[in-house]
């Protein structure tokens, strides 16, 4: 929500997405029985984005997904 409400200009920088996804997954605390498989193509082009904000979006998505996995 903070990202969506931000009224400031974005400073977009060409960024490799694969390492950013791996970093975001590494930041998420999850239950021991929940594992995350990363399948990001290595040949993705760089994407213009604001690295810190995009990483936060990824962390939120991974965290929500991990919390939604049922026990067992």
Structure, briefly:
The chain is 46% helix and 8% strand. The protein contains 3 helices and 2 strands.
Explained architecture:
With 72 residues, the protein is mainly alpha-helical. The protein is built from 3 helices and 2 strands. It has helices spanning 2-5, 17-27, 51-68; strands spanning 13-15, 47-49. The chain has a two-stranded antiparallel ribbon. The longest helix has 18 residues, at 51-68.
Strands, total number: 2
Percent range for helical residues? 40-55%
The coarse overall form would be flat
Which segments are poorly predicted (pLDDT under 50) over 5 or more consecutive residues? none
Strand order of the largest sheet: 1-2
- Element string (H = helix, E = strand): HEHEH
Please count the helical segments: 3
Helix-strand makeup class: mainly alpha
Please outline the major beta sheet.
2 strands, antiparallel
Strand content: 5-15%
Rg to the nearest angstrom?
14 Å
Compile the SSE list and pairings:
Blueprint: H1 2-5, E1 13-15, H2 17-27, E2 47-49, H3 51-68
Antiparallel strand pairs: 1-2
Helix pairs in contact: 2-3
């Amino acid at each position: 929500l903070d990202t969506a409400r931000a009224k400031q200009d974005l400073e977009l920088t060409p960024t490799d997405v694969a390492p950013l996804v791996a970093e975001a997954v590494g930041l998420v605390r999850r239950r021991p029985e929940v594992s995350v498989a990363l399948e990001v193509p290595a040949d993705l082009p760089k994407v213009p984005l604001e690295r810190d904000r995009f990483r936060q979006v990824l962390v939120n998505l991974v965290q929500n997904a991990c919390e939604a996995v049922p026990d067992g």
